[in-house]
Amino acid sequence: MERYDIVVVGAGTAGMPCAIEAVKTGARVLVVEAEPRVGGTLHVSLGQLSGAGSALQASRGIKDDAAAHMADIERINRGTGRRDILALTLPRQGATIDWLMENGFDMDPACPTILHLHEAYREARTYWGVDGGLSVLATVAPLFGAAMAEPNAELRLATRATGLTLSDGAVSGLTLAGPDGESSVATGAVILATGGYGSNAALFARLTGGRALFTAAMPGSDGSGIELAEAAGAALRGQDLFLPTYAGVPQQDGDTRIVWRQMPSLTPQVRQPWELHLASDGSRFVREDDPSVDNREHALNATADMAFWCVFDDAVLAEAPPLLPGWTQGELAEAWASRSDFVTAPDIATLAARTGMNPEVLGRSLCHYNRAVEGAGDDPMGRAHLPRAIRGPALRAIRMRGMVLKTPAGLDVDDTLTVRRPDGTPIRGLHAVGEAIGGSTLSGRGFISGMSVTPALTLGRWLGRRLGTDAMETCPR
Fold first, then answer.
1. Is 257 helix (H, G, I), strand (E, B) or coil?
2. Taken in order 91, 96, 102, 107, is the CA torsion positive or negative?
3. Which of 21, 46, 332, 472 is the most buried (most CB within 10 A)?
4. What is the pLDDT of residues 223-267, one digit of tens each?
5. How does pLDDT run across 97-138, given as a tens digit for each residue?
6. 47 within 8 A of 71, measured Cβ to Cβ
7. What is the largest CA-CA distance in the chain?
């Protein structure tokens, strides 16, 4: 049986930098990746980054530090994240931005900036590459490839970890299934960098109170690493901290997959709303122009089905900025002609019949909004942007869904990223990083700009370097 000092399971946002640093120490490292290519979620992610105290901030005269970053995060998520893990990553995230830049990262010239796609920071500390997550991948993948070319490293693609071997309560090996069949390896350290469960509807429902899954996650985000560790006695955390992204339209009628390119423009700081957002019964449930995306996400989470109808008319369609700017004219024409979640109707009664909304409730929602537009009263939800009434006669509605890319629950770890059992004791030799520890570990109940990709890179590098150094000190070559 082959023996490795460290086995990294997953070659994505966290696994690649973890392996890069572990290989540098001289430790013998095996990386297994279930997909036929590396990169994981970076292939679809927007690749938002955040870090205080970067050289790029300093060059723009921006004074920022980890304490200010922490304060902003805890303001946004109301203190629902893990402060000990935040304290581990935040002081290192500025250096992660510097590391990317030193290795040729193609930074968008607008960065660092304040981004309103998520609840905004008070300081300009959000960054992204010109090609989103692909810019991160373009920087990290060559470094990873060079590491895997070293004599103390090995990469196995299209290979799944199927079981953990424990001896005296500690991890001692791993079983694998790959193109050449099943095999076992011995190791003193397994690092689960397998991502979340955004493509596993059954696991998502189990960990999210039975919610239906609408997702933009990669198919490989199947929660396999989480289930692997659970089978070995690991505890989970964050099941109570789910919050949907506001909001997506499935790629096809009846599908659950959402493509980022086709996301509707629902951020008031980018495009003020001309439409009404109505719950399944036709009632208003949110102030559509609320500048706080966090407020809108919590309102959507409180609905029974985490879905709403975006209602407007032909006059709005003609005058307003595009609601679906990423859709081609052909895609829109086909959707309006054939899809059940793109509805047209000549009047309120027909719209209600075709969408399932209550006609009286729908009529009341439109009436009260139109009166506010015409100055006959205040908008019931406190909306300030009232561009024009929605009267028809040609009415339209698009069904939009609360969705996920990052999943909130994950493996419970201590402040060394060692996986814990339900009683809090560590499972020696088993570690987790990235989305495998749950998006809520760092973001809490909320979405914090740059607090997925950057901690995965940062803590991946830190963990790989630490475990590699420990292995070499214990068994020097």
1. strand
2. negative
3. 21
4. 999 999 999 999 999 999 999 999 999 999 989 999 888 999 999
5. 999 999 999 999 999 999 887 889 999 999 999 999 999 999
6. no
7. 81
